[in-house]
Each structure stands twice: as structure tokens, then as C-alpha cells.
Write the C-alpha cells for this entry.
Amino acid sequence: MKAFNRHFAFICLLIFMMVFTSACSSTEQTGNENSNEDKGKTEGTEEVENSEPVKIGLLVSQTGGLEAYGEQTLRGFELGLEYATDGTNEVAGRKIEVFIEDTQTKPEVAVQKATKLLEEDEVDFLVGSSSSGDTLAVLPLAEEYEKIMVVEPAVADSITGSEFNKYLFRTARNSSQDAVAGAAAIAGEGVKIATFAPDYSFGWDGIAAFKEAAEKLGAEIVHEEYADPAATDFTSNIQKVIDSDPDYLFVVWAGANSPWNQIADMKVQEKGIKISTGAPDIAALATMEPLVGMEGFTVYYHDLPSNEVNNWLVEEHKKRFDGAVPDLFTPGGMSAAIAIVEALKKTEGDTNADTLIETMEGMSFETPKGKMTFRPEDHQALQSLYAIKLEKKDGVPYPVPVLIRELTPEETAPPVRN
């Protein structure tokens, strides 16, 4: 009996061990299966995330006084994406989608459109805008939503100065860069200069920067005149300039309703006052016939830069737009697109703002104007400008900016104002 009990106990123990081992094996297998399933889900999720498009919201003036600038920026941006992605419109395995909104050159509209891009379209980047006023209104949204905003072509110093936040990077030059170039052309010891500009942030910042640069060179600013940017009659403004009896009139202006015809009609130069300004876009150059011989500066004219990127831009632009050459702000739009693509290449498609900020600070990239570099301190792109003289050229129906010399990024580096 005792032998039977021992034998029975042994059989029970053996059965228990077999059941326990089977259960453990089943649990282990199930665990592995769950682990593999979870891993598959994780890998699948990453794959979906990596295949999500990069979304870019482009704010431009498609109506209003700066409509031409908006069109130039838009053309340049689209060409820039094509150039930087070798025609794939894809970076780091992610397609690029562009959402375009018209700010109407009105700050309150710009805010509405930017909010729509951020909340409804869920863009990863903002780009714009044509107006400094529009841009300054939108900048706080970039910070609030923690999205990178590439500023192009707005130039007000306050954008990278008093209103700076870490989410903005500017490929456009700023007013101080213009000012350094403009002052170099005319300022000197004892030279008397009057200024003329539109009465908003673009004009105020431009003149403040020019005044600082000119006075450093020994010039005296004898009068500052600011006009309604929407005005069509500048007679009283120009007369005040004449009454101040300067040696030079330095003009900062943007937009279709330029003062050049009235400056000519009022015979400002015949009164011994020399005119100087930044050579504008082609449409405005066509109104500057009276200023042939003027020395000043320009941001861009299509045959001034000599580099591979600009050669591509000029050739492709002519092909696609009935032989038209790229205009003043076309290379800026292209530069903004190149900057975004180059940053995403470096982050391997990561659009996290902090990662992009770390990547873009100090980043250099090739543009139609040569190499640009985002200065770490204020995210302003250091870049070349061009000292020029307006001359007549056979077969061209407007005065042409002819290169005196290229002003290097080091020469035109503006003060850090933030």
C-alpha cells in the first residue's frame, strides 16, 4: 500500500510539472507574440509618422499694394522647393505640401490667415510675409504655437530686434543691412541728407538704420519726411524736402505707388539735390528714367550674382514665365525654401521646433545671392548686397542696375538689436 501511495504521488507530481511547464511556455510564447505585435505597432506608427507630409504655410500679399512682391516671393519659393529637392518635392522621405494664404497686405487679415494655417491646416512652418506690418502682427503666433517662421521678404529691423522670438529665422535682409549699403554710397563728413519714406514700420526702421549708419560716416540728417504709403500725391512731402536744402535725398520706398514721377516733376535734381535709393523691382525701375546715373545699392538684380544657384533660377524662370527674368524678391522666396529643406535634411525630417532651432542657428546654405548664414544671436541671415549705378542699356526699357562692387555679408552685417 505504501508503495502504491508513493507511486501515485510521483505520478501526480509529474503531471503537475508538465502542466506548469506547458503554462509557462504558453505564457512566454504569448508574451513574445504580444511583444512582437507591440513592436510591429510601434514600427508601423513610426512609419506612418515619417510618411506624413511636411506642411508649410505661405503668407503673401496676393492683393493690396505689395501684390507684385507677393507674386515674386511665391514664384521663388516654388522654384526653391524644386531646386532644393531635385524636383521630388520631398525631403527625408516626407512629401512637402504648401498652403498659400493672401494677407491682403492687412495685419489683421494676416493674423486670421496665420491662425487658420496653424489650427486648421496644422502647418509645420510659416513663411512670410510681403509686409513688415503683416509680419510683426503674426510673429507672436509663431511663438504661441511653437512653430518655425521663416521671414521673407519683410525687412523691418524690429522683426529681428525688439519683437524677436526664438522661433523666427529671416532670409530677407533687414533695414540695417540696406542702410549700411545705402550710407556707403553717399554719406561722408559734412554731407547733408534728407530722407523720404512711407509712414509705417518699414519706413521708420529703414530711416532709423540709415541715419545711424550715415551719421557714423560724418553725414548730417537735415530732414526726415514720412508719407502715407497709400497716397497718390506727394507734392507737400517733396516740397518739405526741397525746403530743407540737402545735398542728397535718400529714399526708402516699397509698393506700386512710388514717388519717382513726382520727384521728377518737381525737378528735385535740377535744384541741386542728388537722389539716392535702393534700386527696386523692375516695375519701379521703369519709372526711374530721371535717375539714370544715380549711385545707390540693390538687394538683387538678375545678372549681378554669379553663382550656380542664380544661373539655375534665371534659366528656369525664363522657361516658365514667358522669358521674364526673376525680380527683386524672387531669390528671397527661393532662399526661404532652400533654408527649410536644408534644415530638414539635417534633422532627417524632424519638424520639432527645438530641434530645428538648434539646427538652424549658425546654419549656412547656398542661395541665388551666394552663401547665407543664420546668425545665432538674432537669426538674421547674413548676405551680400550690391553697390550699383543706374545706367541705360540697349534693348532694355528701364534703367539697369550696373554693378560697382558686391558688398559682402561681413560688410553688410547689421547690429544685433534684440
